Structure formats: structure tokens, C-alpha cells
Amino acid sequence: MFSQISSGARAFCAIISLLCVAAIVLQLSMSLPGYADRGRTLGGFLLEYFSYFTIQSNLLVALCTGFVALSGFNGKWFTRPGVLSAVAVYITIVSLVYNVVLRSTFHPVGWARVADELLHVVNPILYLIFWAAISPKTGITYKGTFSWLIYPLFYIIYILVRGALTTKYPYFFLDAGKFGYPQVALNIAVLVVVFWLFCMLYAFIAQRITGRKRQS
Fold this sequence. Notes:
- The structure is a single chain.
- With 216 residues, the protein is mainly alpha-helical.
- It contains 8 helices and no strands.
- Helix content is 71%, strand content 0%.
- The protein is globular and about 55 Å long.
């Protein structure tokens, strides 16, 4: 039997989903006006915009919470415990990498600052609250979390292939043209270890929360 969800929890999920969509659209609107001046086509700009892991992760958060808000935890892909937990790892890494590594390199103002904070701080915090307090966690195992690494690994491969063809990299630490493949390989290894550690951490938390609910 799939977990039930209250109307209040549905409303909370709807708010998270709408905030993610609003942040993605707002950031897009802030970036869109200058794309032609930088010699890019609209299609090329959109491809580049949606190549950011931040945008993709916020989109996944919007999809997961949106589906939960509309239909609860009905067993469909975006409402499964493993998927919801994997997305929690992704959005955590987004917030962690940005606030620890990248924040000092960006200084947005006005609405761009609003979009920036939503994408990297507000939405991740709200989703982690949802994951900890609302999302079901049954069936999550340490072994099962290795599948959570598939998406980030495919993302990295895509970025490296795209970068080799276009010389454009969304994140400086993946720029093989600037740092060379050995250094980028080392950076990727560190990222994979960080992802894996957070997968293990969230599996540990999920099992502890599930165990307490069974005892209560």
C-alpha cells in the first residue's frame, strides 16, 4: 500500500514545485536577452541553459513534488521512495557545490539574485524538509543507492562530450580545455565520492526514520 498524504502536505509540495518552476523561468528570463549578443542561436542558448545540473535538479524537484501534490505517493516513477531520495541527493549537491565553491564567483543583483537564491538555497531546503518529513522511505537500501549515481555519471559524460565539441562547459571544474583531462578526471573522482557519500548518508537517515516509525 502506498503512503497517504494529507492536504496540507500536498499544498506544501505544490508550493515547492511552483517555486522551482518560477525560479527556472525567472533565471531563464534574466539570461535570455543577451543570448544573441554573445553569438548564440536561441536553440543553442536553451540547450546550454538546460545543461546546468542546477536547472536539471530543480526541474526534477518540480516534477517530483508536482506529481506528489497532484496524485500523492501512487507508485508512479516520480513518487517512488528511491527516486525522491535520489533527487534529494542531487539538490543537496547543487546547494553544497554552489555555496561552497561557486558563490564567490557570482554576484547577481535584483531579480537575478532572487532566482539565484531560490535555485541554490530556498528550493533545496524546502525539498529536504519534504524528504525528511513527508516522503516515504521504505525499501531504501545501501546497495540500491548505487543506481542513484547513474544520472550524475551520464550527466558528466554528456558535459564532457558536449564540451569537446563546443568548448563550452557549464562548470569551470569540468573544463577540460582549460585544465586538461587528467585534472578534470580528478575533479570528477572527487565529485563521484561526494555523491556516493551523500547517497550512503541519505540511505542511513531513511533507514533510521523508517525504523523509528515501525517502533512507534
